[in-house]
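Q: Give me the 3D complex with iron/sulfur cluster.
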Amino acid sequence: MHYNSPIVRPQTDANDLFIELTVGCTHNSCTFCNFYDGYPFRVADWKQIEEDLQEAAAVYPHTTKVWATGGNPFALSVDKLKRFADLTKEYLPEARIGTYARVNDLYHKSAEEIHILHEAGYDNIVLGIESADDDVLSHVKKGYTAEDILRECKKLEEAGMPYRIIYLGGLAGAGNGEESARRTAAVLNQLHPYYMFLTTVAILPGTKLHQEMLDGTFKEETELERLKEFRRLIQDMKNPIGVFSATSTDVLAFTAHFPEDKDKVLKKFDKAISTFSAEDEAYFNARRHAMRSV
Ligand code: SF4
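A: Here is the predicted complex, encoded as structure tokens.
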């Protein structure tokens, strides 16, 4: 198998078969991200892709889940994505394909084309929207707006493509977390992603956001503020959704499905918030600052 850049995938997809479709990220400009520093975006060599599929088929012919690796392979044209799906089907006929997409990867794909890609094998596209608060999106240079998120996710829904999203807490900075969560929920209440990953940012040395923190132009949210931000998001979200919050950056780990688990999860947050101590703050903050990836 060939892997020419770090493999980044959702926690729930760790057991997929990883096939390198692209290297790096077309954007590579989010101020908090260091995933693909030093790995300019490119499409993997088609010969390499076919060799990897052949190798996998020889060992795991009944593979059901392929994760197409790269920062945002969905940036590729519909033709290239279809070519990858057809090759995958040739060697692994039972497999469905998951991958990351940026919101702007969808701009030039119609709902019909996205539907064709779904029929061809793509499933469970993951969008790291991070937030739907325009102040946050602009500050961290995400490269799209809340309106773009709304329009393109509605297109995914029209195409019948199931999708998941990532919310990255803490990006709004001190004093702004709850308002940012409120704005994000207002957008998400118009959409129907079936799953959400809740995580909160670790501000990594070498990133622009870290430099802003050192300059004093960005003040980090406390751990308690991040708890309150998540609580606000959960409280305000109305549509049915599965939620996964179990990363090493979250104070409270849980998996749940809303609305049925909502009250139980809100009570967990209330308890954690009301008993959060200075020692807890110091412990979780030190753990976060020891991280070297988001
Ligand atoms: S967060 Fe995602 S879109 Fe932004 S630079 Fe990193 S990989 Fe690219």
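A quick observation: The chain has a mean pLDDT of 95.
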